[in-house]
User: What shape does this take?
Amino acid sequence: MITFVRGLLVEVGPRSGQTWATVDVQGVGYKVWTHARTIAKLPLVGQEVKLFTNLVVREDDMQLYGFADPSERELFSHLLAVSGVGPRLALGLLETLQPPELVQAVLQKNVRALALAPGVGLKTAERLALELRSRLQKWREESGVLSAPGARASSKVYEEVELALLALGYSSTEVAQALNAVAPELADRQETEVWLRAAIGWLSEQG
Assistant: This one.
């Protein structure tokens, strides 16, 4: 398996809703499929880049998928192990939810958060939570990829606050950032209204 590629960044571009980068490794150009958040971390074209990769082999095709860090590559592999989840769907999940958010959503069986990713319906989200929960719990402990600090709230409180904020028009990333920011102040408070007021207050200050 090709676990990483390092070379000169030649080009980046979108096609059919997917994003890719071409890396020149000693004269050989590797097209690496990825998502927008990884592209945003890349250097300028012509500079050296390193991407951690997963080679997906099918009967009539081989494609390389790359990420900015190895933990996201491993999470991508876990997603592919779920029945009905292919590379494109896995990339959509990783673009919509950052690794801590995605792990947290699976562990808390937060199917609504998982269903925010393009192409992921409620049935697929339920399957993700069912098939990955125990696997990601173990992987998180071994890899050191922790859930977002907002998980200090109970699963019920976190989901209620998240749904309320999403209904107000905030993105899943903004919601996670807000809950992470207010968590240290709330300590062991478990009232939904307290978390919601604090999160809205923090979001208002950012705007």
